């Protein structure tokens, strides 16, 4: 759609429609749904099944598809944070 105003109106209508459908399939079929949409402006719109955290859905996606969402560097950082938090907890207990 060449006209930017028409493109924005179309985007808004279709975004609202797909968000409505995501909510409907989640409620009517007890499905776990996660939807993330980025507009050309960069604005993000999202929906996630209220009863299931996004992290849980992403973990299921990772296991089912075999695709890695996080690279090894991010996993190493996460592991390091966990290790430091445990060490910190241990030191706090020792100080008591």
Spans where pLDDT lies below 50 across 5 or more residues: none
The first-level CATH class name of the largest domain:
Alpha Beta
Round the Cα radius of gyration to an integer and report it: 20 Å
Secondary structure class reads mainly alpha
Helix percent reads 55-70%
Q: What order do the SSEs take from the amino end to the carboxyl end, as H and E? A: HEEHH
Largest sheet: 2 strands, antiparallel
Determine the number of helices (DSSP H or I, runs of at least 4 residues). Answer: 3
Question: Please, how many domains?
Answer: 2
CATH fold node name of the largest domain:
SRF-like
CATH superfamily of the largest domain: Transcription factor, MADS-box
- Beta-strand portion reads 5-15%
Globally, the shape reads elongated
Q: Label the CATH architecture of the largest domain.
A: 3-Layer(aba) Sandwich
What is the terminal-to-terminal distance?
A: 66 Å
Strand order of the largest sheet: 1-2
Number of strands: 2
**Mean pLDDT reading:** 91
Task: Spell out the blueprint of helices and strands.
Blueprint: H1 4-29, E1 34-38, E2 44-48, H2 54-65, H3 72-95
Antiparallel strand pairs: 1-2
Pfam families: SRF-TF
Subcellular location: Nucleus
Domain MADS-box: 1-51
Would you mind describing this structure in some detail?
The structure is a single chain. The protein is mainly α and 96 residues long. It folds into two domains: 1-65, Transcription factor, MADS-box (SRF-like); 70-96. The chain is 65% helix and 10% strand. It is built from three helices and two strands; from the N terminus they run αββαα. It has helices at 4-29, 54-65, 72-95; strands spanning 34-38, 44-48. Strands 1-2 form a two-stranded antiparallel ribbon. A hairpin with a 5-residue loop joins β1 (34-38) and β2 (44-48). It is elongated. It starts with a helix and ends with a helix. The model has no long low-confidence stretch (mean pLDDT 91). InterPro entries: MADS-box/MEF2_TF (IPR050142), MEF2-like_N (IPR033896), TF_MADSbox (IPR002100), TF_MADSbox_sf (IPR036879). Pfam families: SRF-TF (PF00319).
């Amino acid at each position: 759609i060449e006209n930017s105003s028409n493109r924005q109106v179309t985007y808004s209508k279709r975004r609202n429609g797909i968000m409505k459908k995501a909510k409907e399939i989640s409620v009517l079929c007890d499905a776990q749904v996660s939807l993330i949409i980025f507009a050309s402006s960069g604005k993000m719109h999202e929906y996630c099944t209220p009863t299931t955290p996004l992290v849980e859905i992403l973990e299921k996606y990772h296991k089912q598809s075999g695709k890695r969402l996080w690279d090894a560097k991010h996993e190493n950082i996460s592991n390091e944070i966990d290790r430091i938090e445990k060490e910190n907890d241990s030191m706090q207990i020792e100080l008591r």
